[in-house]
Each structure stands twice: as structure tokens, then as C-alpha cells.
Amino acid sequence: MHKSYLNYTLLKQIVRYLKAKQITELENDDGRKYSVKRFLTGQPQQRRKRLQIINGILPAPRKLSKRQTTIAVDEKQELTKELYEQSIHPKVRGIRRGTRADFIHNGSFHEAVGPLLVIAQCFCLMPVRGILAASPKGLSFRWKSFRTWYCILYTLVTIADTGLTINMVVKGVLDVRNIEPLIFHANILLASIGFLRLAAKWPQLMRKWQRVERHMPPFQSWREREALAVRVHKVTFVLITLSLTEHLLSTISAIHFANYCPSRVDPIESYFMTVVSQIFFVFDYSTWLAWFGKILNVLMTFGWSYMDVFLMIIAIGLSSLFEQVQRSLERVKGQVMPESFWTRKRLQYRLICDLIEQVDSAVSAITVLSFANNLYFVCIQLLKSMNTMPSVAHFVYFYASLCFLLARTLAVSLYLSEVNDRSREPLKIIKKVPKEGFHPEVDRLAHEIGMDTVALTGLKFFNITRGLVLTVAGTIVTYELVLIQFHEDQNLWNCN
């Protein structure tokens, strides 16, 4: 009875959905509609035609190409599968007990990046709705939503805080080290604006990504299907944990400094006067303003690290698409394959390249901001390393922060350059194609891979390849040698 009831419920949902979506059949010139009842019951007819799903629009009768027919049938099967899963595991508001379906990955980038976007929204970034939906069809962005409003409010507060920082820096001594708070605040402000603009493009970008994933070779095992999500979650967990650890060490160092150079009788007030000095440079001390400034400082510190984490996850997702194509080629390495096989592989490769161009146009501004931010702070931290460390706590925090910054900068460069590395891997398989299986499509694919530079860029100013790592390292050394000429050993705990 339970199984029959489920089948009946599923049948009702399918009928309701097909009526709403106007599933029609493009037959001969008469344009006669195929009834939903006959489609569901499977009654035979003289000449059965393919179906096409059209959202609310009834097209003129015409013949469908093989590719259009395949896409239409795939969409119908996917929608039917979603309805079946919803009938078996209906959505329940609030906390519920996990099921096996909650731990099965479908291999999509939308599913893998969902938890990362949840973390971002906790820190006033990426106000997109439906980030945990089953498919990108549930994604949406609205200016009139609570998520967008508090992200805009965070941006406005950041603008005000940046203005206070500019006021404090201008009235002090201008130096390459003293403008560090200004660079930090300006960087976070530009990043928050960049992520807000990206959020408006995110739903369409993810739908484009899903269309590309549908044309990729199928996964051969559950391990391949979950590989992307596992890798994304591991990288996110490690970097976020290291970022929180670095911030905790920074807090300990600031507390130690507040005790060493107390500006007020109360040690807690001395700590807040040190952490949010730009606010109390203008306003008198108050407890609520101190806690407000500290919360804002935590949000900005997370946004500072989130830029690099987000770019690395984007690069991992794009690289995984090339990896799917590469695995399918390795399974037929050295074999004689028909020309249609290589045509399909070339089209898959071109779809990935088109997706990379669209993703790059959306995130390239954040990429430039990330590289400029890392370059500046690496130079400043290396310059500060020549000073004498006043205490063990300060020594531990400073070198832990420096190592984390260097590792993060290197990781961003390597992960983003992996897109370019993966795009050239099919050449290894093409070189081993037998003479009998060498078709014009093979030559076309090899020519596209060899001549095109497939890589993420920084606003088209530079391509992020593996050679860029050495370029960045050489730039850091050059700037460091220049800064050393003007370096004077400073007391890092100068109470004045």
C-alpha cells in the first residue's frame, strides 16, 4: 500500500507539472498536440515523435535537430527525477534527521560551493538566495531582500570606517608602513563591492555552468562524483581554520600590547583603544562603539581572507571540468576512435573555454584585488621581520602570520594556474593517437589546445599561469630591496 501510494502521488505530481509546462510534440505540418494522458499511459501511435519542454511558450511546428532533441529529452528526464526525489524525500522546514540522499553528491559545482557561500553570507558577502537548492534553477538575486540589505549596510559601514582610517593616517606621519591600515580597509571595501556585483551575476553564471556540466562525460564511480565536493570542502576548511587561528593570535598579541602600553586604566578598554583606534581618534570612548568596531574588524578580517578562498574554489571547479574530459580520453588512449568521438571531445573542450571566459569576466576584478593585496602585505611583513621582536607572543604571532600569508599567496597562484595546466593535458593523449585513427577533428582539437591560451586573468592585464609564480616572487624581491634602502629599525612596541 505504501509503495502504491507513492506511485500514485508521483503520477499526480508529474501530470500537474506537465500541464503547467505545456509539453507538446512537434509533429508533421499539422502541428497536432500530443495529449498528456497518452504520453503518461504510453499508448501506441502510428508515428511517435520526440518531445520538447518549453517554459510557457508553444513554438511553431518545425523539425528538431538531433542535439536539440537530446537536450529536450534530458531536461524532461531530469525534471521527472527531481519530482520523484521530492516525493520520496519531501522538504521539511527546520531541523530534520538526515537521510542517505543528503550525503549523496551529484558532482555539480553548485552543490560543492553551497557551504562556502553559506559561510560568506554569515559575514555579509554574496547575498544570493537558494544557494543550497538542488539545482541552480533555485538561485535568485533580489535587491529587495534581507540578505542584500544587510550586505549593503555592511558596505556603507565599511565606507564610514575607511573614511575614519583616512582621517587618522593623513593626520599622522605618512610612511609605507603607516598606511597599512588604509590599504587594508580600502581593499576590504572594494572586495565587498565586487562580491555584491558578482552576486547579481551568480544565478545566471551557475545556470551556464550547469549546462556545460550536462555535456561533460559521465562519472564512472561515486568517488569521481564526490571528488569535487570533497576537495572544495577540504580547501575551505583548512584555509578558514588557518585564518581564524591567525586572527586569534593577532588578538592575543593585541591584548599583550594593551597590557604593556596601557592607554586607560581598564585593560579591556585599552585593548579596544588599540584595535579600533581609527574610531576613537575622532569619538570619545564608549562600550557599545568599542564592541561595534571589534565586530566590524572580525567581518573585515574574514573578507580579507575570503577573497583568496573564493578564487581558489572557482579555479578548482573549472579545473575539474578539464579533468573529466581528460579521464574520458585516458580510457581510450592508443585506441582507434571514430571521428564523431573527437568531434564530441572538441565541442566539450570549447564549451569549457567559453565558460572560463564568462567566469573570468565576472571575477577578474576580484583577482586583481587579491594579487595586489597579497603583494603589498607580503612586502610589508618581510620588511617588518627585520625589526627586533619585543616578546615571545609577538614573535609567534608575527611569523605565524607571515607564513600563512606566504602560503596563501602561493596557493592562490598555483590553484589559479592549474586551469591553464589542465587545459593543455589532452595534448598528451592526442600525441598517442594511432595513424589509423587520426582524423581532421583530431588535428583541429590539437590546434585549438596548442594555439589558445586558456587561463584566468586579472582584468586581461596578465594571464595566471605557472610562470606567474616566479614573476610575483621576483617582484617581491625587487620591491623588498628598494624598501630596505629606506629601512630603519623600529621599536614595534613604541607606546608613543
Which stretches are low in confidence, meaning pLDDT under 50 for 5 or more residues running?
22-61, 87-93
Main β-sheet description: 2 strands, antiparallel
Distance between the termini: 81 Å
**Number of helical runs?**
15
Anisotropy-based shape: globular
Counting structural domains, the number is: 2
Number of DSSP strands? 2
Derived structural class: mainly alpha
Subunit arrangement of the protein:
single chain
> If you average the pLDDT, what whole number results?
80
How do the strands line up in the largest sheet?
1-2
Helix content: 55-70%
CA-atom Rg in angstroms: 28 Å
Order of helices and strands: HEHEHHHHHHHHHHHHH
Strand content: under 5%
Please write out the topology:
Elements: H1 2-21, E1 24-25, H2 36-41, E2 51-52, H3 66-88, H4 109-122, H5 146-170, H6 180-214, H7 222-260, H8 267-275, H9 277-280, H10 287-330, H11 339-384, H12 392-423, H13 426-430, H14 440-451, H15 467-485
Antiparallel strand pairs: 1-2
Helix pairs in contact: 1-3, 4-7, 4-10, 5-6, 6-10, 6-11, 7-8, 7-10, 7-12, 8-10, 10-11, 10-12, 11-12, 11-14, 11-15
